[in-house]
Design a protein that fits this description.
The chain is mostly beta strands and 113 residues long. Helix content is 0%, strand content 50%.
Length: 113
Amino acid sequence: QVQVVESGGGLVQAGGSLRLSCAVSGIAFRGSAMGWYRQAPGNERELVARITSIGSTIYADSVKGRFTISRDNAKNTVYLQMNSLKPEDTAVYYCKISYSNYWGQGTQVTVSS
């Protein structure tokens, strides 16, 4: 059974930092690309960052230079380090196994101004 579980969301002031974690089980994590997405109220879900099995990364233009995606294959976990947070980063953040329909339940990130 595949499980994708996010954690680490919360309330932070603008300029602050948060680190999201996504623990995965039930798949060959080492060989899987992983992605972080977010969805703000009234908006479509959008890709924030993605990391391949060999560690190559891509980022949405809106988060480049502020967010960093990484992975720890020994822990079957992918991370999203978010720095210099802005109010417009407020959203529910989701983790997804790329090329699959496996999503986590989401974790709320709220950035106050």
